[in-house]
Amino acid sequence: MGVPVLGTLAVVLYLLGAAQKFAELTRGASALPWRLSLLTWLALLAHGGAVAGMLFPGGTLNLGLFQIGALMAWTMVAVMVLLGLRRPLDTLFVVLFPVAALALTAALSFESRYVAPENPGEGFALHVILALLAYSVLAVAVAQSLFLAWQERALRRRRARWVLKTLPPLETMETVLFECVALGLLLLTLTLATGGIFLEDLFAQQVVHHTVLSIASWMVFGILLVGRHRLGWRGRTAIRWTLSGFFLLVLAYFGSKLVLEVILSA
Question: With contact defined as beta carbons under 8 Å apart, do 14 and 43 qualify?
């Protein structure tokens, strides 16, 4: 099957999975874990096949904005599935599946192209892999923080009791959030370190904003973890810092690629 067919199939499967989980959360529909698991794995396979075709059109590596967005969405869902083997994270499907579907739809609908340098070397590949993992884990942390905010609001207003019944306990939600932030910060640290070692100049004119914003994001997540252990930060404070750190990270990568590949090349 070609890229459009695989991509469209993955989008449909993601939306079906999100709809099933949303019905389970809001209407108390009978849960069918095997069906959701099947939809998830089939979506991942179709998504992965589509992304592989997007990244290697004609044998060259294309790291365009929308292609990387689709790859990052695939990695994000895969990371969530792996983390969900230890913690109850299937509720996040409601947010992450539509995001993955949107990223795939954008990649199928809009063309962007950035050809990677020839013979980039193993160091460059390691840097890219670590960056993808860092973004994906921190994106899961953002989704978790949004659900945590939703849960806290329901507790304060004593409304939407179905939210409280379907989501894990508040303490578990916070634990998962900080585990994701800690793992994401470690991966982001390794990303910056490998960038400094293997890339020629992290502060060159074309990438200086990317580097500065990434370091700023690293500092925000670092302060959040220190605040958690030293000052007991939780709840709204943790949510704000998580969202702020990820916003800087999104600006660092997607903001710069949007300007260079879409706006300036138009």
Answer: yes
